[in-house]
Specification:
This protein has eleven helices and 23 strands. It has 486 residues and is an alpha/beta fold. The protein has two domains: 49-92 and 131-162 and 347-466, FAD/NAD(P)-binding domain; 167-344, FAD/NAD(P)-binding domain (3-Layer(bba) Sandwich), CATH 3.50.50. The strands form seven sheets. A five-stranded parallel sheet has the order 5-2-1-9-20, covered by helices on one side. The protein starts with 7 loop residues before the first helix and ends in a 7-residue tail after the last helix.
């Protein structure tokens, strides 16, 4: 297992923070004091500071669907902002996974227990907690039917149901194949049960890959990214680079091929350029753009990809443009090791209700305004987190920015006031081009949005961001974000 050196000051604060009793919570002031030796943590906290507004006297029954990052943040912010809150949260999971830590488990930096938190520590006694989940949503009548058959009414609804994985949409592959025949997937988890088996399987996969390379072979490793929206868009590449670096530090290498539906390595050009440069530092690493995994023969170890592309023809003088011809082919690639990122989509309760977008590529995702996060047709409904059908924001960092926006706007709706708070599209992707460094790609609808004013170039890999990500972000998440303090 890899360990970072010369990080004693950060570790000291990390340990101090974890000695603080969770049940009693932690104030922003105490967190800043405990993180005093971490200027990055202090700067991030300072950037999120806001003047505490007087609690609203608005009344109404608020139901929150989901007990993950978005649901708990929404609950904490709303509870603080209402003088007499009437909040019900519907969430089957008592174990709360710190999901950004799954990549660190896969890379051997964390162990499974390091990312297991307890929703009992986050949901206070004055919030009604129904340990179930929505089966159907009747937005026309403000009614939810739970999996148990119980009906639940609401005045205001916050949808925080998250995302679901569709391994079954890859022909020949099932969830049972993960962990066998050289196949892994860091995403495999059961949030209701609080399991994170995919991350642990991927750490074993790293070591199996290393053993194969040490045996004198040059193993063929494929890393995939689907043609759907996904949770944490950078995770497929994080696994790619960390696996390659794990081999490299042991004097080994493999034929690592990244197969992605995208036409570039990242949406920000300077980040894409840095990632392309990163790939040249690993022997045998290549990328196949516009390649989508559609089939796996798990016994023969053959992965089949759909490859759609255009071919440029002759110049058309009348239209002053080149003629193009569309092509489609299916490409078979043999592999020894395969890391699968499954297609993803909205949960059934939202997709099958009138709350989802009814057309286009966003069909089934929650139909909210990209700025206010209020439903475009049902004004008493708001969204937070991965379920939102907006162009950006399927990250925990986005949910952190969603929470104060929906809180202000929901309360304004309750009070009959104009909705003014806006989400700027903020998302953050802590790309890991190798152990010990992170590209903290922060951006929104209009381009880069760096948190720190002295690090405006979000494409530069920095060791300090790695230390922040490994040691400081989880306690900040646990003690501040989940309590509505940032």
């Amino acid at each position: 297992m890899k360990k970072n050196q010369d990080l004693a000051p950060l570790m000291k604060n990390f340990e101090l923070l974890h000695e603080t009793p969770i049940k009693d919570g932690i104030s922003r002031r105490k967190a800043l004091k405990l993180m005093g030796l971490s200027p990055i943590a202090a700067s991030v906290l300072a950037s999120s500071a806001s003047t505490e507004a007087k609690a609203s006297d608005a009344k109404g029954k608020i139901v929150i669907l989901g007990g993950g990052t978005g649901g708990i943040m929404a609950m904490a912010h709303l509870r603080k902002s209402l003088s007499n809150p009437d909040i019900t949260i519907v969430a089957p999971n008592e174990v709360h996974l710190y999901q950004p830590g799954q990549v660190f488990i896969a890379a051997g930096v964390y162990e499974g227990k390091d990312i297991e938190l307890d929703n009992n520590d986050f949901i206070p006694d004055d919030v009604k907690w129904i340990k179930d989940e929505a089966k159907t949503i009747d937005a026309d009548n403000n009614k939810i039917t739970l999996r148990s058959g119980e009906e639940l009414s609401y005045d205001y609804l916050v949808v925080a149901t998250g995302i679901q994985y569709h391994y079954e949409k890859i022909e020949g592959l099932s969830v049972d194949d993960i962990g066998k025949n050289g196949i892994s997937s860091v995403y495999l988890s059961d949030l209701e049960k609080g399991t994170h088996t995919g991350a642990e399987i991927t750490w074993k996969w790293f070591n199996d890959l290393k053993q194969a390379a040490a045996d004198g072979k040059k193993p063929r490793a494929l890393f995939t990214q689907p043609d759907t929206a996904i949770k944490c868009g950078g995770a497929p590449q994080k696994i790619l680079y960390l696996a390659a670096d794990y081999l490299k530090e042991n004097g080994l290498n493999a034929e690592c091929t990244f197969c992605t539906n995208t036409a570039s390595l990242f949406s920000l050009p300077n980040v894409a350029e840095e990632l392309a440069r990163t790939q040249t530092t690993y022997e045998g690493m290549t990328t196949k753009f516009k390649h989508v995994l559609i089939k796996v023969d798990v016994q023969k170890k053959i992965a089949t990809f759909a490859h759609a592309y255009q071919e440029q023809g002759e110049w058309d003088e009348d239209f002053e443009m080149y003629d193009t011809t569309d092509h489609y082919e299916e490409v078979d690639l043999e592999y020894d090791f395969l890391h699968v990122v499954p297609p993803m989509g909205p949960v059934d309760a939202v997709k099958n209700s009138s709350l989802g977008w009814q057309k286009g590529s966003a069909k089934g995702w929650l139909e909210v305004d990209r700025y206010t996060l209020q439903h475009r047709r049902y004004k008493n409904v708001f969204g937070i987190g991965d379920i939102c059908g907006v162009p950006m924001g399927k990250t925990g960092g986005s949910a952190r920015m969603h929470a104060p926006v929906i809180t202000k706007n929901l309360i304004a709706q309750m009070e009959g006031q104009e909705i003014k708070a806006k989400f700027n599209g903020y998302t953050v992707c802590p790309l890991k081009p190798g152990y010990g460094k992170v590209i903290m790609a922060e951006f929104g609808y209009d381009g880069p949005i760096p948190t720190l004013p002295f690090w405006t170039d979000v494409s530069i890999p920095r060791p300090a961001w790695w230390a922040f990500d490994v040691y400081m972000l989880k306690p900040m998440y646990q003690h501040l974000m989940m309590r509505g303090l940032m």
